[in-house]
């Protein structure tokens, strides 16, 4: 009580001294794990500094549900939420309701990871600012690789071979439920990110290219999907076809798999005090498609954007600039291990001390593959749904890779019909 | 979004106009007066959304800008673009979801009916602890679907699930079954969970009917020495048939709209998508309010049609008091 009084006094003092109008803003930040607490600290710091008040609005945890809620709010032109935390693939969908931040953020956008900056731009306008980054990573069991004297796999063929070898070895020792590789195969956005990694690592493109041409029907993409379909039932449990991030982490963290594909959040949990594999885990970029392929992790992450219907757009923009600024991103990296989007922070010694693995991630983020969300705009959800459904058909052996891609190509062109918009 | 069934027939005055006395007229006026609030409420909560959904199905509205749309006639249903037929009626995914829903309804309602009768017959017999059993059996029905679906999801998990563990220990299966992931078992799994959840509802409705049956018929049957199985098929079943049909129609209505169970167990997967899952995906995920409304309108028409057929086949009228 006394603390809030003190801050009130402080705020009032500022108000008098600057003569500014104090406003009340609303921000939506997601509340997964530590996220709410860390967000609140950052927001409160800004509120103290400027004398404004900020309300945090709780939103659903699932990114898909959150997007649906934002769409309904924004479509109604409601100004209830001033600052939105949006997913990197939502900018295209929401762009028409977001404020162009070019004038304020143009100067600093160059400091951010280029791939993240790219997802903030729609049709030449800067409608959001990157807040934190995510990318698909390969998690491996160092103890098991040592035991079988295998290196961290560099290509998918290496991974398949190593996984098979270790799985056979462990099963011979009586661990019947041991598996080689777990990932996300449920028919949802997560499968689209997994499959994009396979296809991109084989140089098979990104479904739709920068110019909006549908490129998915190619022999390299077919090769990638064939490889993944070969895993199911051999080194990967068939149940992966209904796994999301948490189910695959469940298998890996119970010590029942040697490799896992997941986002960086799984690191802190795998190394947690109650984890059975604490101290035995390593992370690496996802393998290459072949000798001439490349490491490709799908880019994820969150951006902050200002609603066009905000009544206090200037203050809201200021809040976004503060939260995405260097100091705040550093604090979030140290306290919450959120991966910064500002490139220079990856060589920051305080961050390196708090989270040793963050430094290794800069290459992963720099080479990360963006989903074709900006170029397909409002249609991204349809594109990704067609894509993951086609992939799911191949994985569950209901269709041949080439045949599924042929159908996907036709369906995507049908969605495109008169251009993406 | 869900096709609301508004058409509860208002009993219209059936008297011949010429013979209306002033008393009859005032009674008709009073009847309309009493019905009016119901009519107003039905129009507001069922009629208006339904009309709006049907209207939207003829437009190209998008969730992003609900006020800015054009009337496009039947294009959401069927349209010809450069010699290629497009629209909902040509969409294989839509027809697949229709088939899924009808299949799901037929199988699950049949199983629930049979099991419901069995359970009701047991609960109708006198045994110690009957009151407690009647309450306990309602538990699956009382748990919110989303909660029970999540619960089943973990129980059916291929690696950690208790179901696979039990079957493995009993030696019934050699390897864990991937219940919700394998397209061959996914829809059956949904049916199984639905049966678990809604059999109590069926049992309760049938039990109510059983308790209204006159005891003297059974007395007579017993005196005549009729076999109990014969008594069931010749006496019990015909007597509870009206109530049974109403229960079946209620369940069928409900399961034709199935959404939460399938969405939680298998998400948007095409192998198990029901009509409602399809409509929601169009409306919310793809922002196609026009196309989604067209799907919702078709759901409404399909359900209405199926109910009319069921009623005609069962030769019962909802207006008749089943009890």
UniProtKB/TrEMBL annotation, chain A:
Q: Name one GO molecular function term.
A: maltose binding
Reading the lineage from the top rank, the first entry is Bacteria
> Transmembrane residues, as ranges?
none
Keyword Signal included in the entry's annotation = yes
- InterPro entries for the chain: SBP
Entry keyword Transport: yes
Q: Which UniProt keywords apply?
A: Periplasm, Signal, Transport
One GO BP on record is: maltodextrin transmembrane transport
For this record, the Gene Ontology CC terms, alphabetical, are: ATP-binding cassette (ABC) transporter complex, substrate-binding subunit-containing
**Residues spanning the signal sequence:** 1-22
Q: Which Pfam families match?
A: SBP_bac_1
Family recorded in the similarity comment: Belongs to the bacterial solute-binding protein 1 family.
User: What is the protein name stated in its UniProt record?
Assistant: ABC transporter substrate-binding protein
Which species expresses this protein natively?
A: Microvirga aerilata
Organism classification, top ranks? Bacteria, Pseudomonadati, Pseudomonadota, Alphaproteobacteria, Hyphomicrobiales
From TrEMBL, chain B:
Q: Transmembrane helix: present as a keyword of the record? A: yes
Q: Give an example GO biological process.
A: transmembrane transport
Subcellular compartments: Cell membrane
* Chief location category: membrane
Residue spans crossing the bilayer = 30-51, 102-123, 135-152, 186-210, 231-253, 291-313
This protein's record includes keyword Iron: no
- Superkingdom assignment: Bacteria
Cite the entry's keywords alphabetically: Cell membrane, Membrane, Transmembrane, Transmembrane helix, Transport
Q: Which InterPro entries match?
A: MetI-like, MetI-like_sf
Q: Gene Ontology terms, cellular component aspect?
A: plasma membrane
Which stretches make up the ABC transmembrane type-1 domain? 98-310
Classification via Gene3D superfamilies:
MetI-like (1.10.3720.10)
Recorded topology in the membrane: Multi-pass membrane protein
Q: Which family does it belong to?
A: Belongs to the binding-protein-dependent transport system permease family.
Q: Which protein is depicted?
A: Sugar ABC transporter permease
